[in-house]
Structure formats: structure tokens, C-alpha cells
Design brief:
The complex is a heterotrimer. Chain A is an all-alpha fold. Helices cover about 85% and strands about 0% of the residues of chain A. Chain B is mainly alpha-helical.
Amino acid sequence: MEIFLLYLRVFATGGTFCLIGQILINKTKMNTARILVLFLSIGVILEATGLWMYVEGFGASGATIPIVGFGASLARGAINGAKIGILPALTMGLESVAGGLTAVIVFGLFFGLVSRSRTKKM
Amino acid sequence: MMNKEEYKKHVSKTCPKTKEWRTMLLAFIVGGTICMIGEGFRDLYTEVIPKFNSTQVTSLVTITMIFFGSLFTGLGLYDKLGRYAGAGSVIPITGFANSVVSPAVEFNREGLFYGVMSNMFVVAGPIIVSGVVWSVLVGLIYFIVGVAV
Amino acid sequence: MSKKRGKQTYVIDTDVFIKNTATIAGPLEGKGNFAEYYDEVLENDSWGCKSYEKTEIKMRKNVIDNLIRKEGITEYDLDCIMGGDLLNQIVPTAFSAREFEVPYLGMYEACSTFGECLAVGAMLVDGGFMTNLLCSTSSHNGTAERQYRLPLELGSQPSPVCQWTVTGTGAVLLTNTGDKQPKIKSVTIGKIVDLGIIDPSNMGAAMAPAATDTIVTHLRDMDRKPEYYDMIVTGDLGKYGRDLLHFLAKEEGYELANVLNDCGSMIYTDKQRATQGGSGAGCSSLVFSSYFYKEMLKGNFRKILLVPTGALLSKISSLQGESIPGVAHAIDIEL
């Protein structure tokens, strides 16, 4: 039962982020890059203001899988770095998302080489 | 001929509209489902690799989701999903992977160097740049506040 | 007597025949409304080429070859190859023309290029400068989407007003000798009209004012009623753009409802989800060279006014916040 509730919370949280994004697409004609930047920024702000722990506590992967989670990790890394010194404050944000960035570049290169784009089907 | 203002008013009044409720519902369902799949991987990794801590598992889940986002882009399936799901497939981290892999795939005929590598971030570039700038800003503010206090 | 009528219309008073046509259509177009009218339908988008750009070049070369063969002439009989497409530096047109030892004129006016070619070509033949002139235009979904919009594999949601770039090419041969083929009787060169539409997916709305201006000017210059034509057919306004044209022409006092249609709205079936319909430089040339030309030869249409429409935007102009200028030329084709 507990696991069912957890997955329900994940579904609802992730779904809500996407729902807000869809409303923005419908109302403002924002494109992919703008939507992603906006949600990344929301994640950064939530983490920097200390609200993120509640969102993640409730939504688990529903909060970390959307790009807001990526923004939150960036901010968390920077905040942790700031406790050590000025240099880590500047660099540890990127360090905390290094896994995701590395993956996206390596997979991007790999699939860029092995696959080719197809015209869309109607 | 009509003047610009009248014409713009007429166009915005008569222009075909997106089926908002349908797209919102689809975005919610698809976005939620992708997140549940992520949670599934988290449970799996926590079970299989018990010595990883929560941060490491999160990182591994992110990498896994990026892999699948890239794979489905490479197979030519992610754009079909995006057509229906809209933000539901953009906002999850798989959408970020799609925004990197799709130009990489698109430009592979222009060669490895000036094609794939140069163009990989034509869509996702703003995300990386704004992410880095945000992290520097947050780091600086916290550092200054920390020193002051 | 001057060949000019009114402000923008030129009467072609010698015979300028559209002697023959050739077409190659993409796979989705081959499942559309005019499938049986196309000379050749591609089985897939790439046609064995390494890139879609190369596919488009191959389509252009083959359509010219086919037309020459159908007509039973050689390339040395041609005075000029004239044409255009949607890509930067009109690469498919120029690169296909390098395969022929024929003088070349490249034209660019986005989706209205076919109208520009027919208008200029008809005048060149009428003026006695050329006797065999080949006009062709093309577009390919894979190359145009990539240049004007986003990577093909990016999972973005199509706008409800967007159109589908047609994969296809049509070529026509203009000559001064012919038999029962359709003739170009007059042409109206259109003005650039821009009523401030900014959304680059809403091309129908951007082009409808230009189409209206050209059609109304043509009817006034020639002192004709819309009913003079069996059909007034625009290039690629799409369904919504066609409705806007109807609305705008009504404001000017012309009721087009009975004669108006649009190549882009006609090319796909309703089951194909092309949203507003087809678009692209290949749209009007493909539909005219197949459906309209063959129906005219059968005598089912006797007089049509072909009005290819173009939206003259680039990715950079949109990013700089410029609105989208539209243009259209009217070609009066009669049996």
C-alpha cells in the first residue's frame, strides 16, 4: 500500500510539473528550450530558498526526474561548495550534475554517429 | 486592404486553437509516467546496489533516464511521443536528452567535427549556460552570506 | 499596343504553351488525394541518398530528365532551365542544373517561386527571346523543416496552424509552339504585403493578404469577375489561410467562395494529419503539374488562375522579431 501511495505521489508531482509546462506552451507559445530553461530556473530558486526539500520529500522521482531536479542539484552543489570556500562555491554546482551532463554528451555523440534523422510521419 | 491592427485582431479571433484540455491531460499522464519509471529504476538500484548512497542512486537514475531518452531519440520514437505529450515529454530529463541528441543526429551528415560536435547544443545550449550561471550566482550569494554571518 | 494592363498585369498576346509537365512526389504525397496523377512516387524519403539534400537534388535532376524524355527532345533543345526551392542558395536547383549543359536562371521567392518562374518564363517566351524554357521548383520535408524549423527528431508539439512541407517536385516546359495544351494568357506580378503576422508557424495568415492583393489587382486590371475562372487556386495558404483570403477578398468586394481553392489544402486527404495542409515551393508546382494540368488536357478545367503564395521569412528574421512579408503572383492559364 505504501509503495502504491509513493508511486501515486511521484506520478502526481511529475505530472503537475508537465501540466504547468503544457499550460505555458498553450498560452505563450514557448518552445522546448525556453520551457527547459524556465523549469531549470524554478528548480534553482526552490533549492536556493530551501523549499526544494519539501517538494522532493513529497514527490521523490516526480521531483528529481523533471528538469527542475537538475536545477535543484546545481543549486545544492553550489550551496554545499559555498560552505567550503570561494572556489568550490563557483564550481561544485556543475560537479553535482556532472553525471547527467557527461551522459548527455556521450550518448549524444554515440547516437549522433549511429543513427540518422527521419522525416516525421503524419 | 485592412490595416495591420484590424487584421491582427481578426486573426487572433479566428485562428484555430490548440485542444487545451486534451494536451494538458496527455502532458500530465506522460510526464507522470516517465517519473514513475524513474522511481522504478531508483527502487531497482537501491535493491541491487545497496552500497550506493541516495545521491549516487539519484545520479545513476538520471543517467539511465538520459540513456533511454537518447535511445528513443536515436530510434526516431521520441518525436512521435512529443507530438502527443508536449510538455509531458519535454520537462522530464529525457526531454533534455532529446534536445541534445536530436540535433546531433540531424547534423551527422555534415561530419563528426562540424556536424555532430558543433551542433549538439544548438537547442540545449541555453540550458547549460543558464544552469552554470545560476549555480555560480547561488554559490556566490551563499558564500558571501556565509562570510558575513 | 502595350502588353501592360492596369497597374501590375501583363497580357501574353502570343502563344505561350505549357507544352508538357513532369512530377515526382514523396511517399506521403503518394498517399494523398492526387496519387494517380503523379508520374512517379518515391517509396521512401531518402531515395537511397545519404542526406535529404542529396535526395532533393536527385529529384530535381530526374524530373528534368523525365520531362525531356517525355517530350522527346534533348537538353540541347532547351534555352534555359529556370527554377528555385526553399534551401539556402537554392542548392537543389543549382546542383541539379550542373548536370545539364543548359543556361541556368535561379529564382527564389520561397513557396511562390513557381509563380515567379511561370511569370518570367512566359514573358521571355512571349518576347521572342526563348522558345523552350524549363521551369521547375521543389521542396523536401526533411531539408526544409531542418532549415526553417527544428531538428526532425526533437519532440516538439506542432502548432494548430502549422503546415506540412511537401516532398515533391514539378517541372513544366514553356514553348511558343503547341497544339491543344493550356496557354499562359496573362500574368500579374504581386507586391510584397505584410500585415504584421509574427508567428512563423502561421504562414497562411502571413500570406493571405498578399494573395488577396494579387487576386483583386488581377481581376481589376483585367476587368474580370471571379466567375470568369473555373478555379482560382492559391499555392499553399492552407485551410485557415484560404478562409482568411476569402474573408479579405469579401472586404474588397469580391466573393470567391465558388471558385477558390488551395493546392496545400487539396494535396493531402483528411485522414492524413497535415493540420492545415501542405506547403513549400514544391507544393504548387507538384499539384499544378499533375492534377490541374492533366485535368485541363481532359478539358475538365478550361480557365484557371494559379496564384502561388510565398512567405519570405528566414530563421534569423523571425528571431529578430521581424514580421513575415508575403508575396503572390497570379498566372492566368487557359485552354
